[in-house]
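Quick log. Single chain, no ligands specified.
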Amino acid sequence: MTKTRPDMADPGNCLCFNLRRAARAASRAYDEALAPVELTSAQFSALVVLAKAGPLGTSSFSKAMETERTTATRNLALMEREGLIKRKPGADKRVRLIDITARGRRRFEAALPLWRAAQTSLATRLGDANAKSVLKRTQGVVSALE
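-> predicted structure:
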């Protein structure tokens, strides 16, 4: 039996639409899992970036998150109001660095087991081989489009 290939000229097979649709479905699953610690999947991802990279300027943070600067600024403002991150002057006084706070680190650490459970659940639902393939392919998409 031969698999039919998707018609790439069909707007229903739009890569952008289908990637966004898949991302929204995954985000919903992670948002539900992280709700007990009052974090969204986007906030969790931001805390991951800051916990791993340390203080970052807005441009570097935006690049790491693959978001527009204005979107990052808006999302960070909410996290700053919640005490999860703080902005501080960099070595160059024109640069403001974004850093995770002690409260943000505690929330991040409380979220880790919930995130791990969601990650395991999604990997199980997709099948281990498919989950690893999705990860590899989405990382490849980002690399190819940079």
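The first helix runs from residue 15 to 34.
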